[in-house]
Amino acid sequence: VQLQASGGGLAQSGGSLRLSCAASGFTLDPYRIGWFRQAPGKEREVISCISDSDDNAYYADSVKGRFTISRDNAKNTVYLQMNSLKPEDTAVYYCNAYSDYEDYWGQGTLVTVSS
């Protein structure tokens, strides 16, 4: 059972990146998925979540209008499209699959945004 986050890297301010969160050993379909990030010296914060059933999405104010979460159950993958990146988006990004009974975390992927 594993979640693999990928897609991080270096981007310029105003640029875009797409993060992927792929599951192996289990299917993501029945799980809610969250993307979190942790910047240096700061606590981990939730930035976006997507429901398991009707694809309702939540976005933190800091990313609303710039980031889009989506899921492709056929590919067992959840995505985070990040547009209009800002230097303050620099952080390690984590994905989390959770239900009432289980909770899985992927390893982080580093996003660095240069000004």
Give an overview of the whole structure.
The protein has 115 residues and is an all-beta fold. The protein is 0% helix and 54% strand. The protein is built from no helices and eleven strands. The strands form two sheets. Strands 2, 4, 5, 6, 9, 10 and 11 form a seven-stranded mixed sheet that branches. A four-stranded antiparallel sheet has the order 1-3-8-7, with no helix packed on it. The chain is globular.
Q: What would you call the structural class?
A: mainly beta
Strand-residue fraction? Answer: over 45%
Order of helices and strands: EEEEEEEEEEE
Helix amount, in percent? under 10%
Give the strand tally: 11
Please give the alpha-carbon distance between the first and last residues.
Answer: 38 Å
Average residue-wise pLDDT:
95
Low-confidence spans: pLDDT under 50, at least 5 residues? none
Give the C-alpha Rg.
13 Å
Q: So how many helices?
A: 0
For the largest beta-sheet, the strand count, sense and barrel status come to: 7 strands, mixed
Shape: globular
